[in-house]
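ok so i was messing around last nite and threw this chain in just to see what happens. nothing serious, just curious
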Amino acid sequence: MRTLVALLATSLALAQAPAPTPTAAPTAASAASGLEASSPQQIFAIAVAGAEGMVVGAAEAMPEDRFGFVPAGGDFKGVRTFAELVKHVASANYMAAERISGLKPPLDVAQTLPTLKSKAELVQLLKDSFAFARKAVAGVKDEGLYEQVPSPFGPGTVPRMLLFFIPVAHSVDHYGQMVIYLRHNGIVPPASRK
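result:
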């Protein structure tokens, strides 16, 4: 929670400075290549590149035959399988990005997610969800940062810029779960190998 508050405070402070309007959604690689940022949209691109790298790296590291894995030997009753974690993160990314931009996701999330089974499909789903989130944020004009938009989590509205943090904070939260799942399978997460 402290991290989310710090990220929000930093973005709010930086939003006060004049910033260029992004012309295209940065890729994960281009966003991570430099840490200079002059707008909340650019800060998001940097932050989401880190989250995306960890989450996608974890999904790629889990063997396909273990995507149905759920930890045992503790209080894990009713938790998501590894595949369900991947779908959940991607779904939240799409939901937040849709509310941020007003753009419809390139797929019907509710209908498509249950049909995806293979590791390749799920890793691609995850990558595509982060790309959609980057595109959504890059398209937000500075004057729209504080506009109230419908909350993706129930009734009411929230400032648009607050939704920038869902693909970062939410993904990193579930990355922690993914790490537990990987380690239960004897796999060191790629982000921990460095």
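not much to say yet. The two ends are 26 Å apart (CA to CA).
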